[in-house]
C-alpha cells in the first residue's frame, strides 16, 4: 500500500506545479541556471563515459565478430546502432540519475529541512513550481542534448579504439555507421532521453520535497532519489523498447 | 488584527490545539509563551497557513484565511512576513538578493528602486554594507536581522517570529527584541512572537498568551503575568532565569 501512497503524493506534487508563474522572468532565470548546471555541469562525465563506452564496445564486438566472413564495416554499424539505441541514452541517464538526481534531491531536501520552502510558501509563492519546475524543464531540454553528444563521442571512441588496435580503419567504421543509420533510431534515442530526463528530475525533486527531519534524512532522500530513478529508467527502457521497436 | 476563534488542531488521535480563541492587535508585540510541545509552533503554523486547523477560524482583518480561494490566500500571504527560528535565508543568494527576492517576485520596481528599498530595510535593522555577503559569511545575529529585513521588504501588515532569540547571546538577543518592537510600532504591524525567553516577555511584550497542553491557559499584560496565581504559569516563569 505504501507504493500507492507515494504515487498519490507524487501526482499531487506534480499537479501543484500546474499554475501560472508569479513572475515569468524569475522562472526563466532559474531555468537558464538549471540548464547550465544540468547540461554544462554534466558534460565532462558524459564525454568520458561515452568515449570509453564506444571504445570498449568496438573492441568487444571485434573480438566476437572478427572473421573472414564478416566485413569490417559491420563492426562500425553495430557499435553505432547500439550506442544510439541503448548505450548512449540508458548509460548516460543512469549516470545522470546519480549525479543530477542526487544533487536535486539534496538541494531541495536541504531547502525543506532549513525552512526555505516554508519561507517561499509563506511569501505566497508556489514552492513546488518554483523549486522543481525549472529543474524538470531544464532536464528535458538538456538531457537529450547530452545524449546526442554521447552518441557522437561513442562513435569517436569506437573509431579511435578501432584504429589504435588495428581492428578496423576509421573509414570502415564510418562506412558501417552510415550504411546502418536510420533516422528513427535517433528519434527513438531522443524519446528515451526525454522520458529518462523527466524521471530523473521529477522523482528527485519529489524525494527532496518530501524530506522531513535533518541532515540524515537529506542523505536518505538523495539515495532514494537515485535508486528510484535508476529502477524507473530501466523499467521504462524495457517498456519503450517493447512499444516502439 | 488577527482573530482566532476556537482553533483546534489534531494529528490523528492527538489533540494539539484544543480551542484557542484570542486576538492579536496591530502596533502591538503579541507574545505566545509556553513549554516545548505545548502547541505554540503548531498554532503559528496554522496562522501562517503551513498547517490547516481541524476546526475554527483564523481571521486576518475579517478574512477567514482557511476558507479563502487560492488567489486570495496568496494575497493575504503577501501581507505576511515571517522570521524563522533557523532564519530560512536562501543560501545561494547574497544578503541583497535575499531581501530583494520578494520585491522581484511581487513588484514591478526597477533595479534602482529595489536597491533603494533593500538599503532602506537594511538601515531599519541597523545592518548597512553587507549587501554582497552570503548568509554563510555572517553571524547568527546578523542572519536574524537579514531575516527581519526580508520579512519587511514588502509592505507587510503581519509579522510572525518563531523563537527570534534562539541561539543568540543576551546582547544580540536584546538588539533583536528592540528591533522587533521598533518595527512593530513604526509600521503599525501586528507582530506575533513565539518565545521561551522571559526576558523578551518583560522587555517588549504588550500582550501575552500562555499556552499549556494545547489550551489557552492565560492571557493578559506583562505587568500581570507575575501576579497571576496559576501553578503552571508560575512554574514556567520561575523555571526561567529571569525571576
What top-tier CATH class of the domain at 1-79 and 190-243 in chain B fits best? Answer: Alpha Beta
Q: What structural category do the secondary elements of chain A indicate?
A: mainly alpha
- Helix-strand sequence of chain A: HHHHHHHHH
End-to-end Cα distance of chain B: 32 Å
- Output the helix-strand order of chain B: EEEHEEHEHHHEHEHEEHH
Lateral arrangement of strands in the main beta sheet of chain B: 6-7-8-3-9-10
- Rounded to an integer in angstroms, the radius of gyration calculated over CA atoms of chain A is 21 Å
Please compute the radius of gyration of chain B using only Cα atoms.
18 Å
Could you tell me the strand content of chain B as a percent range?
25-35%
Measured as a percent range, the helix fraction of chain A is over 70%
Percent helix range of chain B? 25-40%
Total number of distinct structural domains of chain A: 1
Largest sheet of chain A: none
Please sum up the structure shown.
Chain A is mostly helical. Chain A has helices spanning 2-15, 24-38, 43-65, 73-113, 116-122, 127-165, 170-180, 183-209, 215-244.
Keywords:
heterodimer; A: 245 residues; mainly alpha; 9 helices; B: 243 residues; alpha/beta; Rossmann fold; six-stranded mixed beta sheet; four-stranded antiparallel beta sheet
Overview of the molecule:
The complex is a heterodimer of chains A (245) and B (243). Chain A has 245 residues and is an all-alpha fold. Chain A has one domain (26-244). Helices cover 84% and strands 0% of the residues of chain A. Chain A has 9 helices and no strands. Chain A is elongated, with a radius of gyration of 21 Å. The mean pLDDT of chain A is 94. Chain B has a domain at 1-79 and 190-243: 3-Layer(aba) Sandwich (Rossmann fold). Chain B has 9 helices and 10 strands. Chain B has helices spanning 40-48, 70-77, 95-106, 111-124, 140-151, 170-187, 198-204, 222-225, 231-239; strands spanning 2-11, 14-24, 29-33, 55-60, 63-64, 80-83, 158-162, 190-195, 207-212, 215-220. The longest helix of chain B is centred in the C-terminal third of the chain and has 18 residues, at 170-187. The interface between A and B is medium-sized, with 14 and 23 residues.
Amino acid at each position: 500500500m505504501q507504493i500507492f501512497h507515494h504515487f498519490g503524493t507524487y501526482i499531487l506534487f506534480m499537479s501543484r506545479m500546474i499554475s501560472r508563474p508569479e513572475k515569468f522572468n524569475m522562472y526563466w532565470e532559474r531555468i537558464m541556471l538549471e540548464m547550465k548546471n544540468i547540461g554544462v555541469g554534466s558534460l565532462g562525465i558524459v564525454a568520458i563515459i561515452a568515449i570509453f563506452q564506444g571504445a570498449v564496445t568496438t573492441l568487444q564486438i571485434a573480438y566476437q565478430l572478427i572473421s573472414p566472413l564478416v566485413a569490417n564495416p559491420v563492426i562500425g554499424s553495430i557499435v553505432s546502432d547500439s550506442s544510439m539505441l541503448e548505450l548512449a541514452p540508458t548509460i548516460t541517464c543512469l549516470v545522470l540519475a546519480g549525479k543530477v538526481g542526487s544533487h536535486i534531491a539534496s538541494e531541495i531536501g536541504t531547502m525543506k529541512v532549513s525552512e526555505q520552502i516554508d519561507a517561499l510558501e509563506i511569501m505566497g509563492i508556489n514552492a513546488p513550481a518554483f523549486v522543481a519546475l525549472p529543474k524538470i524543464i531544464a532536464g528535458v531540454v538538456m538531457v537529450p542534448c547530452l545524449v546526442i553528444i554521447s552518441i557522437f563521442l561513442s562513435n569517436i571512441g569506437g573509431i579511435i579504439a578501432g584504429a589504435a588496435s588495428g581492428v578496423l580503419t576509421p573509414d570502415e567504421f564510418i562506412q558501417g555507421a552510415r550504411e546502418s543509420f536510420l533516422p528513427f533510431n535517433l528519434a527513438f534515442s531522443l524519446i528515451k532521453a526525454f522520458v529518462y530526463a523527466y524521471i530523473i528530475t521529477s522523482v528527485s525533486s519529489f524525494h527532496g520535497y518530501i524530506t522531513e527531519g535533518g541532515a540524515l534524512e537529506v542523505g536518505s532522500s538523495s539515495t532514494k532519489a537515485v535508486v528510484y530513478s535508476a529502477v524507473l529508467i530501466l523499467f521504462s527502457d524495457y517498456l519503450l523498447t517493447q512499444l516502439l521497436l | 488584527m488577527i482573530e482566532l476563534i476556537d482553533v483546534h488542531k489534531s494529528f490523528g488521535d492527538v489533540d494539539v490545539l484544543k480551542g484557542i480563541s484570542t486576538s492579536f492587535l496591530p502596533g502591538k508585540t503579541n507574545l505566545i509563551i509556553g513549554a516545548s510541545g505545548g502547541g505554540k509552533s503548531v498554532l503559528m503554523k496554522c496562522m501562517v497557513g503551513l498547517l490547516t486547523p481541524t476546526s475554527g477560524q483564523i481571521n486576518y482583518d475579517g478574512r477567514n484565511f482557511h476558507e479563502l480561494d487560492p488567489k486570495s490566500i496568496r494575497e493575504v500571504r503577501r501581507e505576511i512576513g515571517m522570521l524563522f527560528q533557523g532564519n530560512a535565508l536562501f543560501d545561494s543568494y547574497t544578503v541583497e538578493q535575499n531581501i530583494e527576492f520578494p520585491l522581484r517576485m511581487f513588484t514591478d520596481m526597477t533595479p534602482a528602486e529595489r536597491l533603494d528599498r533593500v538599503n532602506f530595510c537594511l538601515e531599519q535593522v541597523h545592518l548597512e554594507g553587507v549587501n554582497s555577503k552570503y548568509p554563510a559569511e555572517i553571524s547568527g545575529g546578523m542572519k536574524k536581522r537579514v531575516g527581519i529585513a526580508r520579512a519587511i521588504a514588502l509592505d507587510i501588515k503581519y509579522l510572525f517570529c518563531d523563537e527570534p532569540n534562539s541561539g543568540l547571546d543576551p546582547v544580540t538577543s536584546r538588539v533583536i527584541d528592540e528591533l522587533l518592537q521598533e518595527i512593530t510600532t513604526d509600521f503599525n504591524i501586528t507582530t506575533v512572537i513565539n518565545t521561551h525567553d522571559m526576558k523578551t516577555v518583560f522587555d517588549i511584550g504588550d500582550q501575552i498568551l500562555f499556552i499549556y497542553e494545547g489550551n489557552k491557559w492565560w492571557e493578559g499584560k506583562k505587568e500581570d503575568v507575575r501576579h497571576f496565581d496559576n501553578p503552571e504559569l508560575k512554574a514556567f516563569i520561575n523555571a526561567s532565569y529571569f525571576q
